[in-house]
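Input C-alpha cells:
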C-alpha cells in the first residue's frame, strides 16, 4: 500500500471519529436539556397544603363558577416538568405531595391527569411537557348542595 492510500485511510478514520464525537455530543445534549429542576417548594394559593415548585412560574389562575367538578385552577410553567410530550410525570414532585399527606388515587388517573386526595380536599394535576395545571375540585358535599 502506498503512502497516499494510508493518508486517505487515516483521513477517513479521523473524519469518522469526528462525526461520531459530534453525534455523541448532540445525543447527550438532547437528554441533558430535557430535564427539569425543582428548587424548593412554596404553598399554592389554591390551598395552603398544596406544594408547588418554588421556581415554577404561575402563568394563569382561573375560577370555574358553573363547572360540575372544578372549582379553581392554577397553571404553572416549569421547563421539561413532564418530560418529552408530557409522558413522564415528575416523580420527585409526586413524592413531595405524598410526604405532605396527599394520596394519589391511581385508579382514577386519566392519562396525564392525576387525582389526589387529602382529608376532604380533592385535586387534579395535569402534567404537560413544560407546564402543569392544578385543579381544586368540588367536594361531594359541594356537588350535593348544587344539586338542591
Amino acid at each position: 500500500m502506498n503512502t497516499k492510500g494510508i493518508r486517505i485511510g487515516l483521513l477517513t478514520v479521523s473524519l469518522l471519529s469526528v462525526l461520531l464525537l459530534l453525534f455523541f455530543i448532540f445525543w447527550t445534549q438532547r437528554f441533558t436539556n430535557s430535564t427539569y429542576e425543582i428548587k424548593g417548594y412554596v404553598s399554592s394559593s389554591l390551598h395552603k397544603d398544596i406544594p408547588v415548585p418554588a421556581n415554577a412560574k404561575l402563568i394563569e389562575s382561573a375560577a370555574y363558577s358553573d363547572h360540575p367538578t372544578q372549582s379553581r385552577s392554577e397553571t404553572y410553567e416549569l421547563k421539561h416538568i413532564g418530560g418529552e410530550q408530557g409522558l413522564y410525570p415528575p416523580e420527585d414532585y409526586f413524592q413531595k405531595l405524598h410526604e405532605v399527606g396527599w394520596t394519589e388515587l391511581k385508579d382514577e388517573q386519566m392519562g396525564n391527569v392525576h387525582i389526589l386526595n387529602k382529608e376532604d380536599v380533592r385535586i387534579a394535576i395535569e402534567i404537560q411537557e413544560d407546564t402543569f395545571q392544578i385543579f381544586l375540585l368540588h367536594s361531594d358535599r359541594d356537588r350535593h348542595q348544587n344539586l338542591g
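Strands lie at 41-43, 51-53, 57-63, 70-77, 103-104, 113-118, 121-127, 131-137. DSSP finds three helices and eight strands in the chain.
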